[in-house]
Amino acid sequence: MDLNELLTTLTTGWGDRLAILVPLGLLGLVGLYAAYLVMGYLKSSQVGLEAEAVVGEASLPALASGGAPSTEPYCPVDGLRHPAGSVFCARCEADLVLACPDCGTVNGAASTTCTSCGERLAA
Questions:
Q1: Claim to verify: residue 50 and residue 20 sit in the same structural domain
Q2: Cα–Cα distance between 121 and 115 in angstroms, integer?
Q3: Whole-model pTM over 0.70
Q4: SS3 95
């Protein structure tokens, strides 16, 4: 096969190639979107199941209204206290916060030290 035949083979038939690439590209995009939806559903359902298995709704006492911030992790959205080491709310999946025992500054539950005074927070 010489160079002229190779160039002729490569340059002819682009209409057929594009005719198959467009539907395959659309199918790929639809497939990615479907995978995104399935993974989002599985994430939300598994997080909820795992949280309920570890922490039941009955064992989540509400934060006293008007009281000082708790040194235990609690949800600022619905006011539920969680066991030490929890990072996300079992009910609404919001990030939990906890107060520094030394200065009372509210920090994220994943923080290991207070952002204000540097005090080590309970794990």
A1: yes
A2: 10
A3: no
A4: strand
